[in-house]
Structures are given as C-alpha cells and as structure tokens.
Amino acid sequence: TLDAPEEGAFRVYLAEDKHNLDCRFYEAKYPEIESLVMVNVRTIADMGAYVSLLEYNNIEGLILLSELSRRRIRSINKLIRVGRNEVAMVLRVDKDKGYIDLSKRRVSPEDVAACEDKFNKAKAVHGVLRHLADRRKFYLEDLCERIAWPLYRKYGHAYDAFKIALADEAASGGEAAENDPFTSLDVPPDVIEELKLYIRRRLAPQPIKIRADVEVSCFTYDGIDAIRDALFAGIAVGTENSPIKIRLIAPPIYVLSTMTLGKETGIALLQESIDVIL
C-alpha cells in the first residue's frame, strides 16, 4: 500500500489486490441480536444451513435445523436451497468465536419485505462506493468510513442521503445546494464530484410503465362517435412527461398505458383518465 501524501486524502493500493474492495455495508462489524439480515445459503448440513451474511462482508452464520420452519420438516430442500438469498433473524452473536446463530422461522412476510428493501438500498450505496474505490484505487473501507457510515448515522440510511443530493442538485440546476448531504463530509471535492456522477448514473429514477384494462361500450345511435370522443378525452388527461396511450384489444376492451417516474403518480393519472372516459 501507499499512504496518500496529502492530509485528508485516501489511501491507495499499488498491486491488483481486490481485497481492498472487501468491506461490510454498515459500521457495526456484527449484526445486533433480533435484527434482520440478508444471507446467502452456502451449504446444508445435519445441523442446519450454513450461510454468508451479505451485508457483513460474507461472515458465516448458521440457521439451525429447528429454526428453519414452524412446521414439521419433511424435506429441507423445499425450505431452503443452496445459492438462494434468504432473510433471517439474528439469535446469537459470539464475537470471540465468530458464531452467529440465525432463524428463518421467526421471520414474517412483512419482515421479509422490509429487510429486502433495506438490503437493496444498502447494496446500491455499496455498489456506488465500490465502483469509485475500484476506479480510483482507494480502499473501500476508507470510503465507507468517511462517506457511507456518517450518512447512515445522520440520515438513517445512506441511500436516503444520496436521493436527497440528487433531488437538491436537480432543484438547484446542478449547483451545490445549502443542505447538500456531502458538505459535512471529510472528503476531497474531486472525489465528491466523481461520487455524484456515479450516483446520478446508478440511482437516477427510471420510468416505469403503468397500464389498465377498461371496457368502453355505448349502445346509442352515435355510439362509435361517443366512444371515440371519450377515448380522446382520456388521452388529453396525459401530461408532457407522462402521455397516455390507448390501444384496442378487442371490443369493448381497451388498454390505457403511461410511462412515469412515480408509481403512485402514474396510477392516479390513469384513474383520472378512466374517470373522464367512463
């Protein structure tokens, strides 16, 4: 390794040592008891399933056989499979011996959804910092210590801080905003600028397609004209950023669709269009 000559700069590495990119997601080296973690199943043995804790640099844990399911286990392979990611609850952490006991049966469907959301956000943050570390030949742990972990402490989740930075930058026309989450970090300006570039590429919202099937019928003399006028009125509800398209499947079934950055906004827009049509 080579220590950076300037005060406040990051350490860089000389050799192609990919261990510099190994680092846990969070500041704590071990998860807390009763917390939820995302694990990857490595092997299945008589005692249970040996797993890697993905958010904690793949340290090993064990889901005991008795903690796999509330029901009687007839086939362990139907409950858990090698290579699959699972949400587990932490039962015991022995930091001295490195033992981490986990449970799958104590995890509710609501817990799974919450843990997957947290993990996906943390994975996105980690991916941005890992890309930056690889590009600049920094130690990933240094980036986490000086960027990610302070943001976790201040904002609850570093992903939320990244999204705030994106929104503020868009609102200020690309200029640094007063409440920029990165201004309080001990990080050189050129590193912050490159970080923001990766954030824009990785976390910028992607448009999603919303669609709805509707039945449109009219049995009056001028029914065809009435349906056409109603459909055009529905199309007119669309906006420049979220235009509404209508396609005939087979009378009287039509499909309304729109592209939007916000799921709820798109659903509301289509509902408004349907109300106008019907």
Overall mean confidence score, pLDDT: 87
- The assigned structural class equals alpha+beta
Number of helices: 7
Low-confidence stretches: 1-5
Largest sheet: 5 strands, mixed, barrel
Overall form: flat
Strand content is 15-25%
Protein described:
The protein is α+β, with helices and mostly antiparallel strands and 278 residues long. The chain has 7 helices and 8 strands; from the N terminus they run βββαββααααβαββα. The strands form 2 sheets. It has a 5-stranded mixed beta barrel with strand order 1-2-3-5-4. The N and C termini lie far apart (69 Å). Residues 1-5 have low confidence and may be disordered.
Please tag this protein with its features.
five-stranded mixed beta barrel; 278 residues; three-stranded antiparallel beta sheet; alpha+beta; flat; 7 helices
Topology diagram in text:
Elements: E1 36-44, E2 48-53, E3 59-64, H1 76-79, E4 85-94, E5 99-103, H2 109-136, H3 140-155, H4 158-171, H5 189-203, E6 208-215, H6 223-236, E7 244-250, E8 253-260, H7 263-277
Parallel strand pairs: 3-5
Antiparallel strand pairs: 1-2, 1-4, 2-3, 4-5, 6-8, 7-8
Q: In summary, what is this structure?
A:
The protein contains 7 helices and 8 strands, in the order βββαββααααβαββα. The protein is of the alpha+beta class.
